[in-house]
Amino acid sequence: MSEAMPSKLQTKLQSILALYPRWLNPLPVIGSISETRYWAYLMLVPGLLLISVVIFYPVFSGIRLSFHEYKLLRPQLGQPYVGLKQYVDLFADDVFWISLKNTIIFGVFNVIGPFTLGLITALALKRAIRGASIVRTVILMPWFMPSVVAGHMWALLLDSRLGVINDILVRLGILESYHPWFAQPDTAMFSLLVVGLWRGFPFFALLLLAGLQAVSEELYEAASVDGANAWHKFRHITVPLLMPVIVVSVTLRTIGVVNSPDLMIILTGGGPGLATHVLSFFAFQTAYASFDFGYAAAISVVMLLILMVFTMIYLRVSGVDRA
Prior knowledge:
Elements (H helix, E strand, L loop, with lengths): L3 H15 L7 H9 L3 H29 L18 H7 L2 H33 L5 H13 L2 H11 L6 H8 L13 H29 L3 H9 L4 H30 L2 H7 L10 H10 L4 H26 L5
Helix pairs in contact: 3-14, 5-9, 5-11, 6-9, 7-12, 9-11, 9-12, 11-14, 13-14
C-alpha cells in the first residue's frame, strides 16, 4: 500500500504536466541541470537574491545618491545629477576633516581600550571559579543594555550638578568642584571614551572567552613540560590560536564604532563646538537635521571606503587571509 501511493501521485503529477507545453515543464530542465556541476550554482540563487535585496541594492542606491543633489526641503529641485561636486565640497569642508580626526581618535581608543580590558576579563573568566556563570552574565550587562538607556545613565552619573562620580571625586579630593565632563572641549572626548570602554569591553570578553575555551589544555601542559612560563604560553600558544577571533572581533567592533553616532547624539550632540563631531554624526546631522541626503550619502560613501581600506589592510597585516 505504501508503494502504491507514490506511484499514483507520480502518475497524477505527470498527467497534470502533460496538459502544458513541453517548454513549460520545469522537471526535465531541473533534472538535466541536477546532473551537472551547475546545480550548486542554481542552489545559490535564492541566497544571492536575498543578499542583493538586503545589501547590494541599499549600498549601490546610496552610492548613486551621492552623485545627485537631493535636498528634502526643496523637493521642486528633484534629484539633479551633480557628479563629483559633493565630494569636492566635502574634501574642502573643514568640518569633514575635524570629524575625520575625531573619528580616528574615537575609533582607535574605543577599540584598543575595550579589547585590552576584554582580553583581561576573558583570561580571568577562563579560570574555574565559583559562580562564574553569574559573573559572566553581570559583565555582559553593559553590552545588552540599549544605547539610549546606557547614554542617559552615564549622563546622570557624570552630571555637573547631581553626578555621583563628581561627588566621589570631590570627596576624595581629586576634584575641587563638580566638573561638566560633557560640556568642556578638553574632557568631552575623554568622557565618551570612558563610556565606550564600559560599553564595549563585554563584546570582546564574550568572543575572546569563547576562543580561549576552544584552546586545548594539552598544549599548555606540553609547554609546561618544556619549561615555558606563563608569558611564553600566552605569547606562543594563546595569541596565535586566538588570532582569528581577535581579527574578527576587532574588525566588527571598528565597523560598529565608526558607524554608530548614538553616544554623541545622546551625550554631547557632537559638541561642545566640534570636539566630539565624528563622521557618523556628521552624516546623521546632515541627513536628518539639514535634510541634505545627497551630501550625507557622499559622507557615508567616504566612510564605507575608509572601512573597506582599513579591513583589507588589517587582514593583510594580521595574516589571517593567508591562513
